[in-house]
Amino acid sequence: MKIAVTGKGGVGKTTLASLLAYSCVDLGYNVLAIDADPSPCLGASLGFPPEKLSGLTPIAKMDELIYERTGAEPGTTGGYFKLNPRVDDIPDRFSAIHRGIRLLELGAVELGGAGCICPESALLRSLITHILLRRDEMVLLDMYAGVEHLGRATADAVDAMLIVVEPTARSLATAEQIAKLAQDIKLSNLFIVGSKVQGEDDQKFITEHAPGLEVLGFVPDDPRVREADRQGNSLHDVAPDLASIAREIILNLRERVAAA
Ligand SMILES: Nc1ncnc2c1ncn2[C@@H]1O[C@H](COP(=O)(O)OP(=O)(O)OP(=O)(O)O)[C@@H](O)[C@H]1O
Ligand SMILES: [Mg+2]
């Protein structure tokens, strides 16, 4: 399965993606976790040891690789470069593995149709397409912003998109915009996941304002999230109850995707 995690800034996308990644490992999947944030932080949230993270460079910053594959210097526009560079070796060569999770950092991704037409975006676009269409592990995409990153060509390959929301009107408004964009590119299987939920009122608020989408689960507001973050631990290890919420979300998703 290929799952994209989106939502307004700071709502808890990375936290959820990291919990889901460990649940998938527990369920026996090979997991490829993709950090599409310009300042990567999924690795830390997954509890990757610093020495493994320091060996990683986001693909968008690998100037030599970009040059080697596309035939042009990153940042140049207008010149000639390969639009379909070779990328099949990149996920295995330039990732780190920790406890069954393969982590790939993309760096700043500017892939939108009308966006940057430059060597690095050609490479990243090919890479995402390759991962979504050709790799057969459980792929979790921790997306930095909305769905602009996913072109029409790849939307089909995403099995489900989770839109993470806090119990606030603003985050639900963003969710609605994301859902619209996703539907525009024909991305189906959209679901809401509530985050930082403090009680039944919060749950109710989210369910009532979810933009016509099923709410697949609620992650409570929990001080252990910040604590794990500070200690560099994975939340999965220190909060088994949150881990089982993530497991339920994956099991529900699997059911919905199979039925779709
Ligand atoms: N369930 C939760 N309970 C308490 N705090 C949370 C919870 N989920 C996330 N947080 C806190 O909220 C902040 C943002 O979380 P996180 O990085 O997961 O969000 P994000 O959506 O990935 O953010 P960004 O848009 O910057 O990538 C962090 O400080 C995190 O510790
Ligand atoms: Mg994040």
Layout of helices and strands, plus pairs?
Layout: E1 2-7, H1 13-26, E2 31-35, H2 42-45, H3 50-54, H4 63-70, H5 90-93, E3 96-98, E4 101-105, H6 119-134, E5 138-142, H7 152-155, E6 160-165, H8 169-184, E7 190-197, H9 200-209, E8 214-220, H10 223-231, H11 235-238, H12 240-259
Parallel strand pairs: 1-5, 1-6, 2-4, 2-5, 6-7, 7-8
Antiparallel strand pairs: 3-4
Helix pairs in contact: 1-12, 4-6
Describe the structure.
Helix 1 crosses helix 12 (240-259). The mean pLDDT is 91. Helix 8 (169-184) links the parallel strand 6 and strand 7 (190-197). This protein has 260 residues and is an alpha/beta fold. 44% of the residues lie in helices and 17% in strands. Strands 3-4-2-5-1-6-7-8 form an 8-stranded mixed beta sheet, with helices on both faces. It is built from 12 helices and 8 strands. Bound molecules: adenosine-5'-triphosphate (ATP) and magnesium ion (MG). Residues 13-14, 37, 41, 142 line the site of magnesium ion.
Brief digest:
Helices cover 44% and strands 17% of the residues.
Instruction: Find the structural class using helix and strand composition.
Output: alpha/beta
SS element count, helices: 12
Low-pLDDT runs: none
**Topology as a string of helices (H) and strands (E):** EHEHHHHEEHEHEHEHEHHH
Principal-axis shape: globular
Widest sheet: strand ordering: 3-4-2-5-1-6-7-8
Overall mean pLDDT score? 91
Strand content: 15-25%
* Hetero ligands: adenosine-5'-triphosphate, magnesium ion
Query: How much helicity do the residues have?
Result: 40-55%
Count the E strands. Answer: 8
Rg, Å, rounded: 18 Å
Largest sheet: 8 strands, mixed
Distance between the termini: 13 Å
